[in-house]
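Q: Could you fold this chain for me?
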Amino acid sequence: MQRLPVTMFLAALLSGCAMFHQPLPPAPMPASAPVAVKPAGPVDANGTPIQTLPFRLGVSSATVEKLAKQQACTGGQGAGLVTEQGPVEVYRMQCDNGKVFMARCEMRQCRQM
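A: Sure. Below is the predicted structure, expressed as structure tokens.
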């Protein structure tokens, strides 16, 4: 009687029992180092991207440039419109000395900010 279980075990082993042919679990993937993504364009000291605005002329650009010249601010492209056109507009001008001159114009009456 003892031969029957041994015979069944050998038959299962030789016939390719599924118990002995299980696929191995997948090997764990090695941890890869995080990839640093550099933002396109200028960044501040903390790495935060700085938004750049396209230069746009406005109806009061010449007036703001005259105000800037009175404050010893010259150079660059001139005074560019920062906000949408309307009754109240904000202008920005980059000076040669690195400073920024900003003015607010309400109904074409401009004042330095």
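A (continued): The chain has a mean pLDDT of 81.
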